[in-house]
Amino acid sequence: MSLFSPEKFMESALKNLPKEIDGPAIIAVSGGVDSTVAAAAVAKAIGEDLLAVYVDTGYMRLNETEAIEEILRNLGLKYKIVDASTRFYEALSGVIDPEVKRKTIGELFIQVFEEIADEYGGDYLIQGTIAPDWIESGGGLRDTIKSHHNVGGLPEKMNMKIVEPLRDLYKDEVRTLARHLDLDVAERQPFPGPGLAVRVIGEATPERTEIVRQACHIAEDEIDKAVENGEMESPWQYFAVLLPVQTVGVQGDVRAYGNTVAVRAVQSFDAMTAQASEIPWAVQQRISRRITNTLKSEINRVVYDITDKPPGTIEWE
């Protein structure tokens, strides 16, 4: 049983954040539970001095930008939406190594936010960093599991001061705080900060990103329907990954050489460990058939990932 008290957390935040943030501040909001909770909490502490910024990197889920804008409106925050997709695609051109991806994305995020800060006058950048982010990013005696873009991906020199109000919280505690703040995102499944860039294994080109965007949408939609129909328990996180693997298949009576998609669904409590979810066979078949029918010129094989964390991580990169 968690000893975390959202009431005590907010009492401390309302008292201490105005001392830590003594001027205009920008908060990076992705629409996920971490950054949205951070935005709601900080807004209560510093009010009009906060500007929420959502950056469309081009690596977002289908219709994500429209959904995030609605979330920001409902929060009643001042907000700005920035389309930086071309810049991110260019920065990741030719990049294959997952650590280089994450660090490139982290550095470019900071560039974008510093440009906005110059216009807005903000000296502080608030992030929804939580404990697993900095634990997995390594440092000291900790091995680097993967550099989270908002920790290990930050440049060495920055013009803004980083503020991380959720830094010591785990995912279950953040969700508890979200419920306390009556936020609709409390049960929203996690989405990686680097977005679909780490769900395209290998070079995350615009074309390959669009393939995984569609595959992710199909996997999420079919699982959501199955949960609603009582066929299965809702996983903690579920998505699709595009592999750098091509295999022989058949379309009609013609040999086809296409890409492979892996579907991943896990149950977790705090994101530090996870167990592969049991997806009913009928649901897996619907996901596979819909992906291969919708993306038949690109995908001819769908596999299901049954690996726990550890030894795997939740995301593939």
The largest beta-sheet arranges its strands as 3-2-1-4-5
Contiguous helical run count: 9
- Residue fraction in strands: 15-25%
What sort of overall outline do the alpha carbons produce when their principal axes are compared? globular
Query: Please, what is the CATH homologous superfamily of the largest domain?
Result: HUPs
Question: Which fold name is given in CATH as the topology of the largest domain?
Answer: Rossmann fold
Q: What's the number of extended β-strand segments?
A: 9
What CATH architecture of the largest domain would you give? 3-Layer(aba) Sandwich
What is the mean pLDDT? Answer: 90
Considering DSSP H and I runs of 4 or more, what fraction of the residues is helical? 25-40%
What does the main sheet amount to? 5 strands, parallel
- Computed CA radius of gyration, to the nearest angstrom: 20 Å
Order of helices and strands: HEHEHEHHEHEHHEEEHE
Count of domains:
2
- Structural class comes to alpha/beta
Report low-confidence residues grouped into runs of 5 or more.
138-142, 146-152
Distance between the termini: 31 Å
CATH class of the largest domain: Alpha Beta
